[in-house]
Amino acid sequence: MTRLLSDHPLAELTDEDIPPSLRRVKEKGWSYTPNGSRVLTGLIPKATPPYVEVLQEETWINGRGMPCHDLPRAESERTGPLLRRCFAYAFACLVEAERRFGDQEVLAYVILSLGGLDDDLLTATVTFCTRDPNTKPYIFDIENVRDAAVAELTVSDRDMGR
What we know:
The protein is 31% helix and 20% strand. By secondary structure, the chain is α+β, with helices and mostly antiparallel strands.
């Protein structure tokens, strides 16, 4: 991820960088579930399965693929706009989480990897969760992930591109 970000600086991210469907999610804010999970209100499904732990519930509800159907297929033209979308959405939601909960406990995970029908198209996901000292982290041994570019973000990271 470090290489991608150095090749594609992310200065001056705005809500306009966020796809409209996810901008609406951000605008609906955050809430707690009965289990104590912190979730984006606009992503809570009508019916939910039982969850074993808070981390499972948070990642299942808060994880989404970044819309990219309108971006060019060529990785050289796709990477920058895809990164902007992911980081703009991640930071906007992290700011809202800090406002709602009064702390910086929510983390965002931005993951870029090859996907699509033939695993030849750069795709991305953004997932939000908190750390639970009693469970393994969402991405265990993040520094050794080899099949994707991964960033773990807190709200304090939002100034990195400024």
